[in-house]
Specification:
Elements (H helix, E strand, L loop, with lengths): L2 H33 L6 H17 L5 H26 L8 H23 L13 E3 L4 E3 H23 L1 H11 L1 H6 L4 H23 L11 H14 L4 H21 L2 H18 L11
Helix pairs in contact: 1-5, 1-8, 1-9, 1-10, 2-3, 2-4, 2-8, 2-9, 3-8, 5-6, 9-10, 9-11, 10-11
C-alpha cells in the first residue's frame, strides 16, 4: 500500500482520538476556567463513565444500540451527580483553595478508582458497538461508528459553544470566570455555579467515555492517560479557553494518531510533552489563554 492510504487511515484514527480528547479536555478546562482549580480526579470521572456504560449496557439484551442510547441518557447524569456530591462534601469546605483542592482531588481519584476495582473487578469490560458497519474508502474499510464518534463530538462542542456564548447561563459562567468577586457582588451564587460547573465538567468527560468505550474496553485504570493528554491540551490551548482546547485537541489527537501508526505511541507522547515545554516558554498562558483579572 502506498503512503497516501496509510496517511488517510492515520488521519482518521487521529480525528477519532481528537474528538474524544476534546471532550475530556473541555471538561477539565471548563472547571479550571470558572473555578480556578486543577481537578486531578478528572480522568477517573472519565473512567467511571466508561465502567458505568458497560454496566448499563449489560442490563440490555438484544440490540446493542438500545443499551448505548440508555447509557447516553443515564451515565452523564450519574457521573455528573457524583462530581456534584464530591464538590459539596469536600471542595466547598476547602473554599476552593488551589493547593488544597489538588490534594483533595487526588484523594477523590483514589476513592473512585478503588470503588471501581472493588465493585466491578480488575478485568477489562468490552462494550459492543451500537452498529457494526464498515464503509468502503477504496483502499480500506473504516468503521462507520468511528465517524459517528467524530460527528457526535462536533455536535456536542457546538452545543456547548452556543450555551456559553448565547444563553444567560453562559453569561453567568463567563462573568464568574472573569471576576468571581464582582460576579458575587452582583448576586450570582458563586458556590452554586462552582457546584454545577464541577458536575458539568465530569459529565462532559463521561460522554467522551461513552463514545470511546465501544472502541476501547472499560478498565478501572484507564483514566491516567486521558488525564495526562487533557492536561497537555489545556496547557497548549490555554486554560479556560474553549477554542484553544478544541484547537489543541485536534493538534494533539491528529499528531498522536499519525505518529502512532507510522512510529510509536510513546514517541507521540514525548513530542506532545516537548510541545508543552515550548508553548510554556514562548507563551506561558497558552496559545489562546488569558490572564485572570
Amino acid at each position: 500500500m502506498e503512503l497516501g492510504p496509510y496517511l488517510l487511515f492515520a488521519s482518521l484514527e487521529g480525528l477519532v482520538h481528537a474528538a474524544v480528547l476534546s471532550l475530556i479536555a473541555l471538561g477539565l478546562s471548563l472547571v479550571f476556567g470558572v473555578m480556578r482549580i486543577v481537578n486531578v480526579a478528572h480522568g477517573e470521572f472519565f473512567m467511571l463513565g466508561a465502567i458505568i456504560t458497560w454496566w448499563v449496557s449489560s442490563f440490555v439484551s438484544g440490540n446493542p444500540a438500545i443499551g448505548f442510547l440508555l447509557a447516553l441518557l443515564v451515565v452523564p447524569i450519574i457521573v455528573g451527580m457524583t462530581a456534584v456530591l464530591s464538590d459539596w462534601l469536600i471542595l466547598r469546605h476547602l473554599k476552593y483553595d488551589p493547593e488544597a483542592t489538588i490534594i483533595a482531588t487526588i484523594g477523590i481519584l483514589y476513592i473512585i478508582q478503588q470503588f471501581a476495582l472493588m465493585t466491578f473487578g480488575p478485568d477489562a469490560k468490552p462494550v459492543e458497538q451500537p452498529f457494526n458497519i464498515r464503509l468502503d474508502l477504496y483502499w480500506f474499510g473504516f468503521s462507520a461508528y468511528k465517524f459517528f464518534v467524530i460527528f457526535s463530538a462536533i455536535i456536542l462542542l457546538l452545543a456547548i459553544w452556543l450555551v456559553m456564548s448565547k444563553t444567560k447561563f453562559g453569561l453567568i459562567l463567563r462573568a464568574t470566570q472573569l471576576d468571581s468577586e464582582t460576579a458575587q457582588a452582583f448576586g450570582i451564587p458563586i458556590s452554586r455555579v462552582y457546584n454545577i460547573v464541577f458536575g458539568l465538567g465530569a459529565a462532559i468527560a463521561a460522554v467522551g467515555a461513552i463514545l470511546i468505550v465501544p472502541i476501547q474496553q472499560a478498565h478501572y485504570l484507564m483514566g491516567g492517560e486521558p488525564l495526562l493528554l487533557a492536561f497537555i491540551v489545556v496547557i497548549i490551548g490555554g486554560l479556560g479557553s474553549l477554542k484553544g482546547t478544541v484547537a489543541a485537541a485536534i493538534l494533539i489527537g491528529m499528531s498522536d494518531g499519525i505518529i502512532s501508526v507510522f512510529f510509536s505511541p510513546n514517541i507521540a507522547k514525548i513530542l506532545a510533552t516537548l510541545l508543552v515545554v515550548v508553548v510554556l516558554i514562548i507563551k506561558p498562558n497558552g496559545l489562546f489563554g488569558t490572564t485572570k483579572t
